[in-house]
Request: fold
Amino acid sequence: MASASVIEMKGLSKTYGSGEGATRALDNLTLNVNRGEIFGYLGPNGAGKTTTIRMLLDLIRPTAGAATIFGMDVREKSVDIHRRIGFMPGELSLWEGRTGNQIIHYVASVRGDTKGIVKQAAEIAARLQLDTSKRVRDLSSGNKRKLGLALAMMHAPELLILDEPTGGLDPLVQQTFHEMMDEYRDKGKTVFLSSHVLSEVQAICDRVGILRDGDLKAVESVERLTQVEFHTVEVRFRDAIPAGLPQQLDALPDISDLSANGARLSMRLVGDFDPLLRAIASGYVESLHIEEPTLEDIFLAFYSGGEED
Reply:
């Protein structure tokens, strides 16, 4: 029976340099990406996202560990793997003096199916509102990203590996990109997408991995990750905040980030609401506003001072 995992990484590590000056870019990464899902790989610049992708593509070699794509070792079978994937790097380098059409035809000829691939590339470019008759040097950074997406997707690969794909794209084109990714998943294909745009990941990804300083901190479904047990709570009183209430709330173990502004209190609550409700009953509560955490809230929680490696 074929594995449900398209990408498998086991103990993947990368260290640059040696001795006291060595820098650990990735530490013992073990992660699977399943067939037919959009997996979001989250982390700020320098977290190790691009290092991971370069090792998957055999552009750099790991210090330790191994990885497979389609069940094939990424080092031993890199050529076979590359035929079946589409890749867009975070830093896209294209021939500045060539037009988008010329580059598309060249890449299509390398892949050996000029007619079909070029037609597909033209359809993708049209959806992304890209003029492929222009030279690369005349394209904005956003339009260069569009060309990169067309090159990555034009041969309908089984797996897309995209490094920060929507940088520079305007909101309408970003929405089109999201629709294209949904369609890709609906066809049973797989997307591995690195990003620090949290709203994008929350909109289209099935699961996310949160990377911090080369260390994988969490892997969860987006739905489950956004249902963690903390909430942002705002209490507004009709008159003033009751005397002593901020100190009383501050002493509760499930409340943090407490702030007072006029007749309003805001805080982060973990767990049950009952202790909070009992405490605020000493005043006349005009309104009580409760917000579920966004993916950004959760991401920041993983990067707060209290979350240690």
Residues 230-292 form a domain with the Alpha-Beta Plaits fold (CATH 3.30.70). The chain has two domains: 5-225, 230-292. The two ends are 37 Å apart (CA to CA). DSSP finds eleven helices and 14 strands in the chain.
